[in-house]
C-alpha cells in the first residue's frame, strides 16, 4: 500500500523480477504471487551485501519558480486559483492509489486545474505521488503548498488514449499479443488457474467457518474395572 500503488503494473513487474515468481491475481491492494512448481531456493542468485551507502542522487526541482510558457505573475495567479478550486479527492495515509490517475484524467476533461488533498501524509510521499502523476497523466505540477497537490493540464492538452497502461486486469498477462495467430496456452497456465482457485477456496472456507473453542484437559480418565 502507499505510493507504489499509483502504478500497479510497475509494482508487479518489480515483484516478479526480484522474486522470480508470477502474479496470478490482483484485487485492489491484494496480490497473489505464485512461486511456481519448479521453485528451488538454492538456484536463485543472491544479491551481495552492500557494505557502503551510496551518495544520494540530486534530483531536479519538481516545482519551478515559473511554469513553462507563463510569466511570473501568471504563475502566481494560477497557484492562487489552484488552491481555491474544489478538492478532487483526499488521500489517506498508506492507502490504495491505483485509481488516482484515471480520476485526474477525467477531471482534466472539464477543468484545467485539479487539487488533491494530502493532509496528514508525509511531505516526501505526496511529492512522490505528484512526480508519478506528472509522468503518467501527463500534467504540470503547480504547487505543493498547504499539503495539497495542484496540477495543471497545460495549454495544448490532449486526452491520453492509454487509459489502462498502468493497471493490471485480473488473470491477464502483461504482454498483449496483437498477432492474429496466437500460440496455444501452455499447460502450466492450467496449473496456475487450479492453484488460484484452490487459494480462493481455502480463504473462503476459513472466512465462513466459525472457530471452535479448543478445550485442553490435563487430567486423564481411566476406565473403571468391572467387578
Any idea what the CATH architecture of the domain at 72-152 is? 2-Layer Sandwich
Low-confidence stretches: 166-183, 212-223
How many strand segments?
6
Overall average residue pLDDT? 76
Strand proportion: 5-15%
Helical content stands at 25-40%
Query: Major β-sheet, in short?
Result: 4 strands, mixed
Strand order of the largest sheet: 3-4-6-5
**H-E string:** HEEHEHEHEEH
* CATH topology (level 3) name of the domain at 72-152: Translation Initiation Factor IF3
* CATH H-level homologous superfamily name of the domain at 72-152: YhbY-like
CATH first level of the domain at 72-152: Alpha Beta
Q: How big is the Rg?
A: 26 Å
Query: End-to-end distance, in Å?
Result: 71 Å
Shape: globular
What class, by secondary structure content? Answer: alpha+beta
Keywords: mRNA processing, mRNA splicing, Repeat, Ribonucleoprotein, RNA-binding, Transit peptide
Pfam families: CRS1_YhbY
Protein name: CRM domain-containing protein
Domain CRM: 1-46, 68-164
Amino acid at each position: 500500500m502507499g505510493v507504489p500503488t499509483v502504478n500497479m503494473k510497475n509494482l508487479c513487474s518489480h515483484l516478479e523480477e526480484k522474486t522470480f515468481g508470477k502474479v496470478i491475481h490482483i484485487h485492489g491492494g491484494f496480490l497473489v504471487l505464485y512461486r511456481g512448481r519448479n521453485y528451488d531456493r538454492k538456484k536463485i542468485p543472491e544479491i551481495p551485501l552492500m557494505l557502503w551507502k551510496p551518495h544520494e542522487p540530486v534530483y531536479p526541482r519538481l516545482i519551478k519558480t515559473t511554469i513553462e510558457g507563463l510569466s511570473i505573475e501568471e504563475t502566481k495567479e494560477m497557484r492562487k486559483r489552484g488552491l481555491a478550486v474544489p478538492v478532487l479527492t483526499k488521500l489517506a495515509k498508506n492507502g490504495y492509489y491505483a485509481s488516482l490517475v484515471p480520476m485526474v484524467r477525467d477531471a482534466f476533461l472539464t477543468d484545467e486545474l485539479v487539487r488533491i488533498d494530502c493532509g496528514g501524509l508525509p511531505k516526501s510521499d505526496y511529492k512522490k505521488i505528484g512526480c508519478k502523476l506528472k509522468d503518467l497523466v501527463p500534467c504540470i505540477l503547480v504547487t505543493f503548498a498547504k499539503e495539497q497537490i495542484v496540477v495543471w493540464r497545460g495549454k495544448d492538452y490532449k486526452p491520453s488514449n492509454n487509459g489502462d497502461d498502468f493497471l493490471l486486469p485480473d488473470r491477464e498477462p502483461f504482454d498483449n499479443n496483437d498477432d492474429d495467430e496466437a500460440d496455444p496456452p501452455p499447460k502450466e497456465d492450467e496449473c496456475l488457474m487450479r492453484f488460484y482457485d484452490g487459494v480462493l477456496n481455502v480463504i473462503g472456507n476459513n472466512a465462513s467457518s466459525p472457530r471452535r473453542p479448543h478445550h485442553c484437559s490435563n487430567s486423564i480418565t481411566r476406565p473403571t474395572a468391572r467387578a
